[in-house]
Amino acid sequence: MAASQKTYRYKDQTFGSEREMVMHLLDDYRCVEGFAAQYLGAWKAISKEACVTGGLRTVCGREQLHADLLEARLRELGGTPQCKVPEERLAEMDYYGSEDHSDIEKLGKIASRLQEPEKVLQFLSQAIEQIDEDRDTRELLATILDDERSTIQWVLASWEDLKPQA
Ligand SMILES: [Fe+2]
């Protein structure tokens, strides 16, 4: 009987080796972060609430930094960027870049899907736990994870401050 082969999971995909998972993760996450930097940047450019603008400066900067670091690591490992933003997510660009929606509405929309930070970040923390050989990528991702926690904390705290009082 063949020895059971260890498998690796990222989001809803299974991989036969750590390297395969790492290469896919770096490309997928790079793409997601680059897109986040774009639509949050479009929002920042038209935001009216000074405290939203200020926070978005850091948040956007971080997302772009993550995209750049992930791409650099992907290339270092011999990969090339391939993932594209799914069609259905492109609407977010229109939404966040539109003045038809207030800063408060946009903040509320993001806050509503970030209520449970560790659950939201599980796709990343679970992948990190599976990385054993590539310590370099592992710590790159672990330190990005810390940034993501800071971003979520800012979104939730700002929403608490700015949300319409019942
Ligand atoms: Fe991010």
UniProtKB/TrEMBL annotation:
Superkingdom, natural source: Bacteria
CDD domains membership: Ferritin_like
Protein's name in the database: Ferritin/DPS protein domain-containing protein
Annotated organism of origin: Candidatus Entotheonella gemina
Alphabetized InterPro entries for the sequence: Ferritin-like, Ferritin-like_SF
